[in-house]
């Protein structure tokens, strides 16, 4: 039948076109990665790899970079890993997923090497399908992470989720979030009275307004304003919450107020002594100072203070802290 032959040729034609699209796209992805590494080297950075390949025919672009090594000779920071995979569906190339290896090494300026191990570490970036590819959503997920140093210390992290999402494309406003569960601190913090060796919870909910969108240009935007809806940190009996707003003033200094609430403050003087931050002889005076701040708060079990940034200066309650940070 003619219609059967037509259908077969039509399907075959679509297959040839789709295969051609994949090969052209795969070559473009590979060339783009090679160009990026060459550009970093031309800018004075170290950017090396042993191989760049693209697989996934015919429904994915699976870019694998083998033995990537990036370093900044000026700052002294560097990073290397056995591989990095960047994956995207052929029909949705504006959604990219990066799969990071179980072991990575970070070179610090002071000469120490930091080894990052993870049972799972992935990054998902969803752009808006327009020519500039502005950011829609980005998520970093990790499980079973540990960071160990050649200087002998080690930290662990059971689980983390970091996220950023564009909530207003006209105003370039992003919502930022973070949830971290059980951050095990180095051994020096293991026996602190009433605190213990781990941060049990870390939560962040904030929005930032930027001078320009985050897009494929990778130009760093300026911060026009930030609202901290809630930040929460739990460490043993101590809990710290914060909320407030910050924006640059006419001279570029951070200006605004962050309200802080500290519960379990009674454990801090002994912890400061145990860490060697203050002399044992000063423990009582620090405790009395905290008691004074607690009595001035609505709830004596919770110290409530305002971190104020104004006229280029910072104060915590009535305590001057010095110059406020300058925002770009």
**Helix segment tally:** 3
* Alpha carbon gyration radius: 26 Å
Mean pLDDT: 89
- Helix percent reads 10-25%
Largest sheet: 20 strands, antiparallel
Give the CA-based shape. Answer: globular
Structural category is alpha+beta
State the total count of DSSP E strands. 20
Strand and helix order = HEEEEEEEEEEEEEEEEEHHEEE
Low-confidence segments: none
- Strand proportion, as a percent range, falls in over 45%
What is the terminal-to-terminal distance? 71 Å
Which descriptors would you attach to this protein?
328 residues, alpha+beta, 20-stranded antiparallel beta sheet, 3 helices
Q: Would you give an account of this structure?
A:
The chain has a 20-stranded antiparallel sheet that branches. It has 328 residues and is of the alpha+beta class. The chain is built from three helices and 20 strands. The relative contact order is 0.07.
């Amino acid at each position: 039948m003619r219609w059967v032959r037509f259908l077969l040729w039509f399907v075959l034609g679509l297959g040839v076109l789709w295969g051609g699209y994949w090969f052209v796209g795969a070559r473009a992805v590979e060339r783009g990665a090679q160009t990026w590494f060459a550009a970093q080297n031309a800018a004075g950075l170290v950017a090396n790899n042993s191989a760049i390949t693209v697989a996934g025919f015919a429904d994915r672009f699976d870019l694998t970079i083998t033995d990537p090594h990036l370093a900044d000779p000026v700052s002294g920071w560097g990073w290397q890993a056995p591989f990095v995979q960047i994956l995207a569906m052929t029909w949705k190339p504006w959604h990219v997923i990066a799969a990071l290896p179980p072991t990575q090494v970070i070179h610090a300026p002071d000469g120490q090497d930091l080894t990052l191990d993870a049972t799972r570490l992935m990054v998902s970036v969803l752009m808006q399908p327009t020519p500039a590819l502005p950011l829609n959503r980005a998520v970093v997920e990790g499980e079973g992470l540990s960071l160990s140093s050649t200087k002998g210390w080690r930290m662990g992290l059971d689980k983390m989720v970091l996220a950023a999402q564009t909530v207003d494309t006209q105003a370039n406003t992003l919502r930022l979030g973070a949830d971290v569960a059980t951050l095990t601190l180095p051994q020096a913090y293991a026996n602190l009275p009433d605190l213990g060796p781990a941060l049990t919870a870390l939560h962040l909910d904030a929005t930032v307004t930027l001078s320009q969108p985050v897009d494929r240009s990778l130009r760093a935007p300026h911060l026009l304003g930030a609202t901290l809806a809630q930040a929460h940190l739990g460490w043993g009996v101590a809990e710290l919450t914060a909320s407030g707003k910050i924006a640059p003033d006419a001279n570029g200094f951070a200006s605004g107020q962050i309200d802080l609430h500290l519960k379990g403050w009674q454990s801090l003087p002994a912890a400061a002594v145990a860490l060697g931050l203050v002399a044992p002889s000063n423990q009582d005076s620090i405790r009395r100072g905290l008691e004074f701040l607690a009595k001035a708060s609505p709830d004596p079990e919770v110290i409530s203070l305002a971190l104020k940034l104004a006229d280029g200066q910072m104060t915590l309650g009535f305590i001057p802290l010095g110059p406020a940070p300058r925002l770009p």
